[in-house]
Input
Amino acid sequence: QVELVESGGGLVQPGGSLRLSCVAFGNFFSTYAMGWYRQALGKQRELVAIISPGASTNYADSVKGRFTISRDNAKTTVYLQMHSLKPEDTAVYYCNAQRVIGIGNAEYWGQGTQVTVSS
Output
């Protein structure tokens, strides 16, 4: 019922910046908390940042001060602006939508976009 499509990944040098976008195709975007997760090779998937329908945010300690999550409800899009990228940020980044308002317990995942930080 909801399709999430990520874009913006790529290869960047340490210290560089990148902006990821996730477009949600479906209804009731404003009822979902939107999050960015990442999974590095050989590691478990971890939460990077999350933003509520009211635009309150939370970040993993490892990205605080460097990453910013935001949402544009009119465009049904969530963004992850990444600065001062480190090799440790290399991972597949996934967009996530989790219903927090309304009926049901829906959760959706995007296909992921690769971010590689390397000199």
About this structure: The CA atoms of residues 35 and 50 lie 4 Å apart. The chain has no helices and eleven strands. The chain has a mean pLDDT of 96. The two ends are 40 Å apart (CA to CA).
